[in-house]
Amino acid sequence: MNPVLVEVTRGGQVESAHRGAVAIVDAVGKRVAVLGDADAAVFPRSAFKALQALPLVESGAADAFGVGDEELALACASHSGEPMHTERVETWLARIDCVESDLACGPHLPLHEPTAHAMLRAGDRPCRIHNNCSGKHTGFLTVARHLRVSVEGYERPDHPVQVLVRDAVAAMCALNPRSMPVGIDGCAAPNYAIPLGGLAQGMAKLGDPSSLTPSRAAAAKRLTAAWKAHPLLVSGTGRACADLIMAAKGRTVVKTGAEGVFTAVLPERGWGVAVKIDDGATRAAETVMAKVLTLLGSADEGTPEITKHLNPPIRNWRADIVGERRPTEALARLPA
Amino acid sequence: MNPVLVEVTRGGQVESAHRGAVAIVDAVGKRVAVLGDADAAVFPRSAFKALQALPLVESGAADAFGVGDEELALACASHSGEPMHTERVETWLARIDCVESDLACGPHLPLHEPTAHAMLRAGDRPCRIHNNCSGKHTGFLTVARHLRVSVEGYERPDHPVQVLVRDAVAAMCALNPRSMPVGIDGCAAPNYAIPLGGLAQGMAKLGDPSSLTPSRAAAAKRLTAAWKAHPLLVSGTGRACADLIMAAKGRTVVKTGAEGVFTAVLPERGWGVAVKIDDGATRAAETVMAKVLTLLGSADEGTPEITKHLNPPIRNWRADIVGERRPTEALARLPA
Description:
Low-confidence stretches of chain A: none
Mean pLDDT of chain A: 97
Largest sheet of chain A: 8 strands, antiparallel
Helix content of chain A: 25-40%
Number of helices of chain A: 15
Structural class of chain A: alpha+beta
Radius of gyration of chain A: 19 Å
Shape of chain A: globular
Oligomer: homodimer
């Protein structure tokens, strides 16, 4: 039974509560600190995109197609569909001789509300490039081009691109690639159920690649640097990932995933963090990650970027404060 | 510790799970069936709007201002802001000599996405009438007009209108009106923390008003009839409340509330139902209520209206089925 990590209050009463687990693990799999069940398998969803992007660099595809740091950040991103994201994905697609319809992810309105509203006002409809995963998919297509295999079906679990991705993910998380249950993500790419502790270990290896082969270590370093350098490309204006990466001032990078997952890489410590909220609530995962960053010394409590996610007020539709979201004592006791 | 009532799967694995409690209680407070903690206090949020509307009828305000069944349904509604809702609220406001700015609820875009998108395309901005609670607030204003008290501040807990509402809610839920913790709802109206079993009892009395004073019994009957007759006005196109009320074919009315609350009134049985999901997830509350209705014989399993909420597929952005939402065995064992 995982502990309650986050509470949501109204009028001083707890209205809702979120249980979950946190694993902080180093690159060799040593558990630095754990709250709840770190052995339960979770789908990382978008929170392990940097692991999924390893073959893009390691295979030589990124170099062959001149993929720069901004594009690598987009390969690791759940972007908000702002022009800064979609214009770069479009340019990258053209450079690998692909078009929007080659992307296997479905369309959805940009997560960035002003951009979405501007599109609606202009009578525009979202395309696959607006999908928050379009950078990851363009990375997959780049690998397919480099391998000189068909881009059609690149999202299928048995396609050469996805086999490379699966094997890289499994090796990073110290798992047998054939033992990971497969699920299909919201963007139609394969996702793998991974024990929370293994996911944290995989993230740790991105920041401490000393146990990796030289080519994989170089890929891990380059991806982590791109992720750190471009917090807005990895997420978007006002998003938790951008805020927390900027608050950490280079000490930590973080990545959200659907259904209450959040990961972090702490290169200075050589640790990885993985969070899963049992019920899948994003709001709770954001509060947990903000708290973990302050506990681990990656960010200072009390800054606007941290408070916004750690302990935000709950407001009604006329903006009065009617409650708050807050981490519990259980979370504050996380040894670090 | 409340049991897991709903699971969300991906690739055959449970990805997220929701705990919660269910109370089925009769009008005198006898517990017909309970799962989890029925004594824990919950904010009913919008799920007890029919209780909040009792003074509108009981005070004579509805009759004095010619408030019909469609408007009573809107007083009990969390509406989707479709033209069928906003046009009726606007007409009602004019009849009581009030204007949009008299409403204390803040503006938000209609919950009905096509309506919201059409507004954005037309360059329109939402006003307070689009707030999903604008019918409830217009009901409050109608009571204020009838009492010949100031409409200004009608949303404050100590305003005569809210004192009437609080006392009616407390009496229906068999509580001391002064012992109910107060919270402020998303629409700026007071909300009260009520034990789940008491909330279920309050709903039961709406369907079995035999223990109520004649004027309150008449108000309960009239509100329940209006609610039953106008499922689309109480919610909106495609919404869970409308679907479940229509699936129940007059045997049951239901009402959703924010943060995972759902209530039902079963007049034929004389029972009330209250559901609270611990983590506040609406998706889980909808699955629980759909299951409860089938267990209580109010609706048939297998119809599209029930399946859509009981056991919907989880789809990715290109509409492939990648998982499902489903009730657990714990819920299926609910004695009924």
